[in-house]
Amino acid sequence: MATLSACSSPPWPDPNPTTSPNSDPNPNFLPDQSQTLDFESLMPPQPKSPPQYRSPAASPPGLSPETPPSVLHVAFNQDQACFSAATDNGFRIYNCNPFSEQFRREFDGGGIGHVEMLFRCNIIALVGGGPHPKYSPNKVMIWDDHEGCCIGDLSPRAAVRSVRLRRDRIIVVIEQKILVYNFQDLSLLHQIETYPNPKGLCAVSQLSDSLVLACPGLQKGQIRVEHYAQKKTKFISAHDSRIACFALTLDGQFIATASTKGTLIRIFDTVQGTLLQEVRRGANVAEIYSLAFSSTARWLAVSSDKGTVHVFSLKVNSSIPEQEKPQNSSNSDAAITPSNSSRSFTKFKGVLPKYFNSEWSVAQFRLQEGSHYTVAFGHEKNTVIILGMDGSFYRCQFDPVNGGEMTQLEYHNFLKPEPETAL
């Protein structure tokens, strides 16, 4: 069930406006015209900031900062330029480079369990969470930060496990079903039955002319890939064990998968379902927390409960059009030249490698074992960004030639105010 609502009855934003936006950018957030649909141009201006806003430097001089909230979920936006943190009292949005808090919204006695951004625009999907949820856990609230309120909601008949956004679609994940909605009018377009999916695993491509959606299939270890433009469904038997994590490239042509064993990561062609490469994280069982491709699929990053982030080299040439890549994308990725064919992987010859002949990571970064970290590639050359559920933010650099231990470039605790520099 979908509901449209508004604080002052603003028009519902069109995710695909036909005219160029000409309004002033939101002063509370960085504009990114290369990746953003400016929903604000479709909204009436507000005379004041919403009452839920609290400045990052709100503590008066001489008073100790208040106790940081508990983080319930962290996630990068679609181009990894920003990230969101859902907390037990609201949510916060940060810029990755340079690191800075862009804004926060705090609710009295209300927690947010999941935040999903849409690039850098003011439309955000929220799901209630924590000991005292702000919203029902079986609702997806469409928050317009320009208006400072929710302008619509989706109400599946079960608790929402995760949400994914595109400019034209809202994908809602519940325990055993994927629901695909049209962004413009919130109409339900497609339902997909899945294997039990308590972690809310789902991935969606982000190119404007191609919608590819990946989710668990109906069997253990199986991935289902929907190619909507081709009206084609592909089932991939990726692992013998249950699927623990997967990630799509921006264009949806390749998928990286990991099972609950967490020792091997496999890369498949999503159209044919062909296994293209297999890399080894380690020998012992591990819980894989996140997988991330670089913008042109030259590198793959992996985080797990073992406390080490790995970067693997992939044998792939990108076919992503230059205009579709995030602005300021990695120079090391840009050096990979697209081939004439739609994709070009160096495939295995003969049988898959044994343990002693496995493909190991090129670079590593050591963290606290057992903690939950999410990883993505930065927009600077050969950089990786790591987010911790404890509020940690790391920006690291790896050597693409010699590999080895990454160099830490930056560290912040995004839950605590940054100390002001003395004049």
UniProtKB/TrEMBL annotation:
SMART domains: WD40
Matching Gene3D superfamilies: YVTN repeat-like/Quinoprotein amine dehydrogenase (2.130.10.10)
Coiled-coil features, chain-numbered ranges: none
Pfam families: PROPPIN
Amino acid composition bias (Pro residues), ranges on this chain: 58-68
Domain of life, per lineage: Eukaryota
The family this protein is said to belong to: Belongs to the WD repeat PROPPIN family.
Protein name: Autophagy-related protein 18a
